[in-house]
Automatic annotation (TrEMBL):
InterPro entries: RNaseH_sf, Tc1-like_DDE_dom, Transpos_IS630-like. It comes from Teichococcus wenyumeiae. GO terms for molecular function: nucleic acid binding. It comes from the Bacteria. Gene3D superfamilies: Ribonuclease H-like superfamily/Ribonuclease H. Residues 16-136 form the Tc1-like transposase DDE domain. This is IS630 family transposase.
Length: 141
């Protein structure tokens, strides 16, 4: 982060953002039925699997958030999310976006807006990203 501060004029406000994504959707299980031994009753079940990905980012100090719901999760989707975050950054400010090390966050093909610098977290440390608390990840079930 020292590079970000040094690369900008000293009076540039810095906003700290945290981002992550979550998959939501239908994930089927095997159908089971009670039946007489030796019989094989039909057990129709919806076998489709449909998902969406929620991209979310927060800036707790400023009370800001930015998010998208997309049908895929890749570098192109991350670029769309970065554009959404850049629109929420205050004019004249610079955002430091803290993310995990997912491939689409650290891809050399990722086009990052000039008002954002990506700062990856150490590996296997989701507890350091407060936006992880936003996703319930099925704990409510």
């Amino acid at each position: 982060m020292a590079e970000v501060v040094q690369a900008r004029p000293p009076d540039t406000p810095i906003e700290i953002w945290f981002a992550d994504e979550a998959r939501v959707g239908q994930k089927n299980t095997i159908s089971r039925r009670w039946a007489l031994r030796g019989s094989r009753p039909r057990a129709p079940r919806d076998q489709r699997t449909r998902s969406a990905y929620i991209f979310g980012a927060i800036c707790p100090r400023e009370g800001k958030a930015a998010g998208l719901v997309l049908p895929f999760c890749n570098t192109a989707a991350m670029e769309l999310h970065l554009v959404e975050i850049a629109q929420a950054v205050a004019p004249g400010a610079h955002a430091v976006l803290i993310v995990d090390q997912a491939g689409w966050h650290t891809s050399p093909k990722l086009v990052v807006p000039d008002t954002i610098t990506i700062l990856p977290l150490p590996p296997r440390s989701p507890e350091l990203n407060p936006v992880e608390n936003v996703w319930t990840r099925g704990r409510w079930m």
